[in-house]
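Anyone able to model this chain together with S-adenosyl-L-homocysteine?
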Amino acid sequence: MRRIWPGMETGTIHLVGAGPGSPDLLTLRAARLIETASLIVHDGLVDPSILAMARSDARLVSVAKQRSKHTLPQDEINALLVHEALAGRDVVRLKGGDPFVFGRGGEEMEAAQAAGVRVEIVPGISAANGAAAASGIALTHREDASIVSFVAGQCKGLSDQDWSGLAGVGRTLVIYMGVKTAPQIAEKLMADGLAPDMPIAVVENACRPEMRVLRGPLAGLPDLVMAEAVQSPALIIIGHVTARGDAAIAPLLLEATL
Ligand code: SAH
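re: yes, here you go
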């Protein structure tokens, strides 16, 4: 708590990364905050086993997609966090992966700062790192890739995004939110000069018991996603490193973490 003017205490907003799934991939700081919080505002990617770590009397507020398929609009989430903090309550804002990787953590931090509310960022293992570890796909490799890029592959604005040079020989491209747009993604990359036989992998539900790792050539990505009925959350990884992964390590990681 912090006193911003006499007699008025504000809470702190903790923007906390919940990692890719399993609770033991949380940072110790994240675990401590989750276990002690009286208010947790979380999104849909946070694994139920992590929410189960909360105090029994904690208030858990989901801002995830509901049956109506709508998430709470971002400005309403910002307003909720700020409102609670101004009322003197500490808020744990729990997000899948890392709050600053496609997590809108930046917007929430700015909203907090604009309202004069203290904000703390607790990093998490982003899906790319979790998927890499669980699938045995090293994102960098001295022989195959010394550049890694993370991009958002969702529909909105996809055609306007300039990905030129992000994928290809010596590079790894990790695409978040690209399941629905897989055909446009493959087309976009090949139009940019990528070889149709460039190896790719799709990692679905990384670091969860139901994880799947699918591999193939770039040109086959749309069919792979369709034939295997790939569902979100999944990452698409493009580059020669995906042809190296040793699937045999995945069960070891899962055994160790579940
Ligand atoms: N802040 C999150 C990303 C949020 S965007 C992070 O750092 O990981 C949501 C996207 O993340 C999903 O559409 C999917 O592409 C990816 N993602 C999140 N969790 C995942 C998981 N367990 N396995 C594979 N992809 C995941």
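The chain has a mean pLDDT of 91.
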